[in-house]
Write a structure and sequence with these properties.
By secondary structure, the protein is of the alpha/beta class. The protein folds into 3 domains: 373 residues, Glycosidases (TIM Barrel, Alpha-Beta Barrel), CATH 3.20.20; 60 residues, Oligo-1,6-glucosidase, domain 2 (Alpha-Beta Complex), CATH 3.90.400; 69 residues, Golgi alpha-mannosidase II (Immunoglobulin-like), CATH 2.60.40.1180. The chain is built from 15 helices and 16 strands. An 8-stranded parallel barrel has the order 1-2-3-7-8-9-10-11. Helix 7 links the parallel strand 8 and strand 9. Helix 5 runs parallel beside helix 6 and helix 10 packs across helix 11. The relative contact order is 0.10.
């Protein structure tokens, strides 16, 4: 079992997110798999992370990148077998890495046995009570039960063809029609997911990432709403919190400090509700990820998130990149603020200069994130400074966002392009030479491969390695207090924060948001995201961690 951290290891862990289809291909079919993950675990060890989180690898038709699950307790053959999964867990634990897997409680695939039973049964059946199945409105029930629309575009209701071939009732789906939502007011659903958690806990997983965690309970009066936005209660009295109390009891029944981190895009005070002592352990701080490259926005995100979570005695879980959003290099290059979960992007400008700027900012933001108290999650390729791939051909796109928006939104494929490991031409060691990957890799990634960056001490890969080593060595970067310091001069476009934890020395973190250098405090620069001359200031669009003279 992992031994790097003790009890409540999750409070300050750095977790590496693996999107299995795009991590490494062991069998030459152009898609990543579990054996590919096992073969590259030493990359995660050398990076210095504490755990890995696996996106879905379960049997699935693949309509939504594996989030349309047909069987929660098996491995899709495209990714391998349960034996491969067990090998992965054993190999990770032997290296001191914990393993977190996705659980998707909001919906299942329309290929799931439960939903197939819906189609085979009639109105009022127990099988239909596991989902949100309702009669339609208007003559012959030909209109959907409400005006609600899908997150992926289009209506949230799809009509069932009854066993006799006639049009029948309607079922609700927050996402794609192939992802019918479960009815969490039905006790069978909770019992099933308690079983799912136990299945994976028995196989040795250390925790779960809970997808769309705040969306489980809908207002089942189905009121029409302006714009068709669904009504999903998330306040303190919502039954959704009873769900997580029940799932927490399952986790607590196992040894080894098992944990769960939830995904919710709610405001800070609502996110904190999911972190009450008898609910979940962590919740992603998407407010930090959605902030622009702006000192005021980031300071407010940090301050208010720390305060909201502290009220619950919970750490903040920081994140910049994930499988649902454009990569931070491209966001910062284009000056994009994430307004929604699936925002389209383009680099804008001449591309080359903008991406160089974006990389400077992304490196600086990552070093800031890793200097904040709590947990941090990295997305595969973030340690390489990969940009989003915004020029994928239309025929290559697979995200349902693209199709359901009529092509007006590019969707999330641009952040899911397979990783470049080595070599001068695609597939860059992701697959055997000459194999076409499931999404095409840009030829320009030859300069961003793991092998190329291994040989360059100034690379983004080495910055992340040093940042994680520093975080592990300095308690004041993992926990403790954050105190904002005064600017060195009026109008300075920078953030200065003092970090201090019991048992650790005081540190000062300086983030320069402008283009001109700013003064650094007297003392020793432990790490900076851009070169700092001896006795010089911090360059523009950079972050430094300093041991101040005199403490």
């Amino acid at each position: 079992m992992p031994g790097k951290q003790g009890a409540e290891w999750w409070r300050e862990a750095v977790v590496y997110q693996v999107y299995p289809r795009s991590f490494a291909d062991s069998d030459g079919d152009g898609e990543g798999d579990l054996r590919g993950v096992v073969a590259h675990l030493d990359h995660l060890v050398s990076l210095g992370v504490d755990a890995l989180w696996l996106n879905p690898f379960y049997p699935s038709p693949g309509v939504d990148g594996g989030y349309d699950i047909a069987d929660h307790c098996d491995v899709d053959p495209r990714y391998g077998t349960l034996a491969d999964f067990d090998t992965l867990v054993t190999a990770a634990h032997a290296r001191g890495l914990r393993v977190i897997v996705d659980v998707v409680p909001n919906h299942v695939s329309d290929a799931h046995p439960w939903f197939r039973a819906v189609l085979a049964s009639g109105p009022g059946s127990p099988e239909r009570a596991r989902f949100h199945v309702r009669p339609g409105r208007g003559p012959d029930g030909a209109e959907p039960p409400s005006t609600w629309t899908s997150v992926f575009g289009g209506p949230s209701w799809t009509r069932i063809t009854e066993p006799d071939g006639t049009p029948g009732e309607w079922y609700y789906h927050l996402f794609a029609p192939e992802q019918p939502d479960l009815n969490w007011k039905n006790p069978e659903v909770l019992a099933e997911f308690a079983r799912v958690l136990r299945f994976w806990l028995d196989r040795g997983v250390d925790g779960f990432r809970v997808d769309a965690a705040d969306a489980l309970i809908k207002d089942t009066t189905w009121p029409d709403t302006p714009g068709g936005w669904p009504v999903i209660p998330k306040d303190a009295s919502s039954p959704v919190h009873e769900v997580y109390r029940a799932l927490r009891r399952v986790l607590d029944s196992y040894p080894g400090d098992r944990m769960a981190v939830v995904e919710t895009g709610a405001p800070d005070d609502v996110v904190a509700l999911f972190l009450r002592p008898d609910e979940m352990h962590l919740a992603f701080n998407l407010r930090f990820a959605k902030a622009a490259w702006d000192a005021g926005e980031l300071q407010a995100a940090i301050t208010e998130s720390l305060a909201a979570n502290a009220a619950m005695g919970a750490p903040v879980t920081w994140v910049l990149d994930n499988h649902d959003n454009p990569r931070s290099v491209t966001r910062f290059a284009a000056g994009i603020r994430l307004e929604g979960d699936y925002a389209p992007t383009s680099t804008g400008g001449d591309g080359v200069a903008d991406l160089a700027r974006g990389l400077r900012r992304a490196r600086a933001a990552a070093l800031l994130m890793l200097a904040l108290p709590g947990a941090a999650y990295l997305y595969q390729g973030q340690e390489l400074g990969l940009p989003n791939v915004d020029d994928l051909p239309d025929e290559a796109l697979q995200d349902p966002v693209f199709r359901r928006s009529g092509g007006t939104e590019r969707g999330r494929d641009g952040c899911r392009v397979p990783l470049p490991w080595r070599g001068e031409v695609p597939p860059f060691g992701f697959s055997p030479d000459g194999v076409a990957t499931w999404l095409p890799q840009p030829p320009a990634w030859r300069d961003l491969t793991v092998a190329t960056q291994e040989a360059d001490p100034s690379s983004t890969l080495w910055l992340f390695r040093r940042a994680l080593a520093l975080r592990r060595a300095e308690p004041s970067l993992r926990r403790g207090t954050v105190a904002w310091l005064e600017p060195s001069s009026p109008g300075e476009d920078a953030l200065r924060l003092r970090r201090k934890a019991g048992g650790g020395r005081a540190l000062v973190v300086v983030v320069n948001f402008g283009v001109e250098p700013v003064p650094l405090p007297a003392g020793e620069v432990l790490l900076a995201s851009a070169p700092v001359a001896v006795g010089g200031g911090l360059p523009g669009e950079a972050t430094a961690v300093v041991v101040p003279a005199g403490g």
